[in-house]
Amino acid sequence: MAIVASDSEEDINKYATSEVANGDFVQLFDADTLVSQFSEGIEEYELTEESKNELDTFASLFSNMIKSYSVSDIRLDKKDDTHTASAVVTFKTSFAMDIIGSASVSNKISDAIEVYNADHADEIAALYEEGNDVAEAKIYNDMLEIILGIYEDEIQNSQEMTYAIVLDLEKNNETDSWIVTGVNDYDSSSAESSK
């Protein structure tokens, strides 16, 4: 959790399986992953300095998203030579974790794109006369800056949120250490364990 919270360069694979390290939960707080997700298509369209700076600023907001966390309700289970455990982690974030996929933000982005298309129709038509690559690179950079601006506004106006997850752990008897093998939503995990 310390590595995830600090966006540390330390190798998370020392503490978690590769599935967990590369999974949605860990990757959500990784600035490099976020930059690469928003940069898809960069091979075709070169980002402007403004777009690069905006993307870096946006990614840094996610790398500092977790404000605090605590671990509680640790349960050990020993079967033969296998030791497993689960732990509840409660953490506070500076904004909602699902901000990127939220319906309200998606609607704002759609509206902004419509306005952009209407306001820049003549300019885009003129750029297409210079060539598809020129026009599409301009559109790509403009759209990226608009989208990131909307996300940043949402983040700045967001409230702190509290979440709970359940970590599944397994003991490595050879090294006498524990490794995280799964990250589960607390509500889903609670429903599963009550069956």
Which percent range fits the helix content? 40-55%
Average pLDDT score: 84
Tell me how many strands there are.
4
Series of secondary-structure elements, N-terminal to C-terminal: HHHHHEEHHHEEH
- Number of alpha- plus pi-helical segments: 9
Percentage of residues in DSSP E strands:
15-25%
Distance between the termini: 28 Å
Q: How is the biggest beta sheet arranged?
A: 4 strands, antiparallel
Secondary-structure-based class equals alpha+beta
Give the low-pLDDT segments. Answer: none
Q: Radius of gyration from the CA trace?
A: 21 Å
Shape: elongated
Strand order of the largest sheet: 1-2-3-4
Comma- or semicolon-separated keywords:
4-stranded antiparallel β-sheet, elongated, alpha+beta, 50% helix, 4 strands, 195 residues
Short description:
This protein is an alpha+beta fold and 195 residues long. The protein has helices at residues 2-6, 18-21, 24-28, 31-38, 49-63, 103-119, 121-130, 132-156, 186-193; strands spanning 66-79, 82-93, 161-172, 177-185.
Describe the 3D structure.
12% of the residues are buried. Helix 4 packs antiparallel against helix 5 (49-63) and helix 6 packs across helix 8. The protein is elongated. The protein has helices at residues 2-6, 18-21, 24-28, 31-38, 49-63, 103-119, 121-130, 132-156, 186-193; strands at 66-79, 82-93, 161-172, 177-185. Strand 1 and strand 2 form a beta hairpin. It is 50% helix and 24% strand.
